[in-house]
Design goal:
The chain is an alpha+beta fold. It is built from 12 helices and 19 strands. It binds arabino-flavin-adenine dinucleotide and P-hydroxybenzoic acid.
Amino acid sequence: MKTQVAIIGGGPSGLLLSQLLHRAGVDSVVLERRSRDYVLGRIRAGVLEQGLTDLLRHAGVGARMDREGEIHDGFSIAVGGRELRVDLAGLTGGKTVTVYGQTEVTRDLYAAREAMDGAVITQAEDITLHDLTADRPRVTFVKDGAPHTLEAAFVAGCDGFHGVSRKSIPADILREYEKVYPFGWLGILSETPPVAEELIYARHDEGFALCSLRSRVLSRYYVQCPLDDRIEDWPDDRFWAVLKSRLPGDVAARLVTGPAIEKSIAPLRSYVAEPMRYGRLFLAGDAAHIVPPTGAKGLNLAASDIHYLSRALIACCRDGSEQALMDYSARALARVWKAERFSWWMTTLLHRFPEDGAFNHRIQQAEFDYLLGSRAAQTALAENYVGLPYA
Ligand code: FAS
Ligand code: PHB
């Protein structure tokens, strides 16, 4: 098998890259380890920056999002009985975010790949990368028990944090930066009306909580939980009681509870791998970086990587210019680190750090007091939340 770009991973990064390349006349093959249903069964991100929604429209995948997604021009932060509404549109000259689940984005991408007869091979096993510094890298894999070899001019590593691509970069070349947080997020999905029109981020002495949504009849809630907690430790009743205890009284009073149709615990970490290139291998999305979900940046960072990488691969494969590929890693990392900073800042502001002393607790209070009283601080928060430009 031969192609121009071998894409490892059929999550949002890999599928969006394949779709953008195809529409520009560049050939690719997506190799996904899991089944399509398994990939679509993951409940993850919910908030899309304008950069991502524009990119999805440019890829011809924005129609259902435009019909069913909700435009949000603000959100609230509640700390210790005080509440701040962050007026995103008012603070950023009209920028907004779209609430539309990652699951739906991925579903739309799979449908678009199928409609264009794109090459997406699911349940591909034992994917291994070879000759990444040669002119024609190779990817070997097993499908339905039969071995295959895919030759390509370039390999895009879009296979997430636990994938094979990043691990194919020699240890003496790869530089890794990591911060692991001493807690996780327990998230549930419930077929109940959202407790509020907009998202509410709540910081309580007992821990963080987040009220989000997927539609007017599908709610998404999170509570901070100890790292070693398991799903079994959290029957629905306990989740609802803890969530209510961390929300402002008036919000808790109107919360509509119901059975969890999905429940998962995600550990929180900040992580960046540099460089995002090795020979003819280019990393994008969670394969290269992870952010704590507090700032809703994970999926949106994958989008800016794919924006840069798709344009660089098209410039090279279609127009014969390699400069953008040479610049890719530095360009992507510049935006990655700014989003890492913002996600770390918002996580530090809103979570209870069990090991922190009284001084750090006071600093958290002062940070929120400053935010509450400063339009400049709120503007900085707002411009990061809606997404920094794809410079
Ligand atoms: P993904 O991990 O989504 O996709 C990688 C794909 O590669 C997967 O389909 C995987 O099966 C496949 N793969 C892995 N190894 C492979 C191999 N060896 N060969 C072939 N394929 C392989 N972001 C937010 O903004 N908000 C959130 O609330 C949020 N919650 C999250 C909760 C969890 C539990 C996780 C893990 C992430 C969450 N994220 C959230 C971040 C998430 O949305 C990612 O940023 C997003 O999925 C990134 O997309 P990809 O880069 O495509 O990686
Ligand atoms: C979500 O709806 O899943 C969501 C929203 C905002 C976040 C994190 C997750 O910061």
